[in-house]
Design a protein that fits this description.
The chain has one domain (about 10-170). The protein is built from 5 helices and 7 strands. It has helices spanning about 10-30, 55-65, 70-80, 100-105, 135-155; strands spanning about 50, 90, 90-95, 110, 115, 135, 165. The strands form 3 sheets. It has a 3-stranded mixed sheet. Strands 1-7 form a two-stranded antiparallel ribbon. A hairpin with a 2-residue loop joins strand 2 (about 90) and strand 3. The structure holds iron/sulfur cluster (SF4). The site of iron/sulfur cluster has 10 residues, from loops.
Length: about 170
């Protein structure tokens, strides 16, 4: 982050949430790593068109650090792609450290309405998954929505004052 930049307080809440998700991932990989296929180069789930405004804010900051040729690639992807994420290039995420919450959890065990779901490439042959390795998706969604609402109320940038931000609009120039 830029020095002396004043950030909305919602950003620190969002970063705290990311820390918790990353800790969940670390523990999950320690326990079930050999049963999980998610890794660099597997990008089948990189089908994403829009994100919460607070996530767009973080992604826009990350885009400013990209090399000129990477920015060109994002610009071309933004014009040409319909479903595949504009930040996916050569099978890799160009803004991996600033990827949104859904990209940090996709493929891992989530519970919603009493049903547990995960990528079918993962956990093959396992009879079950421990409860502490399953994300409560409803709770996670509630937390993101609350932090995002706080951000939208805090920001004075009209670009972010809406329900969702299309990824194709994140690169501004
Ligand atoms: S932001 Fe990165 S990880 Fe998320 S869908 Fe796009 S390329 Fe994939």
């Amino acid at each position: 982050m830029m020095q002396n930049e004043v950030l909305p307080s919602s950003i620190s809440l969002y970063l705290g949430l990311l820390e918790k998700i990353d800790a969940f991932e670390k523990a999950l990989l320690e326990k079930y790593g050999e049963h999980i296929s998610c890794r660099k180069g597997c990008s089948e789930c990189c089908v994403l068109e829009s994100v919460f405004p607070i996530e767009a804010f973080m992604m826009r900051r990350a885009v400013t650090d990209l090399a000129p040729e990477e920015r060109t690639a994002v610009r071309e992807n933004s014009e040409n792609r319909r479903e595949q994420c504009v930040f996916l290039e050569g099978g890799n995420c160009m803004i991996y450290g600033s990827r949104p919450v859904i990209c940090r959890t996709h493929g891992y065990p989530i519970e919603m309405d009493g049903e547990v779901d995960f990528c079918l490439k993962n956990f093959k042959g396992l009879a079950g998954i421990d409860g502490d390795s399953i994300l409560d998706l409803e709770l996670l969604n509630t937390m993101i929505a609350a932090i995002n609402l706080r951000f939208v109320n805090e920001t004075d940038d009209d670009f972010f004052r809406r329900d969702r931000v299309p990824l194709a609009e994140i690169l501004s120039d």
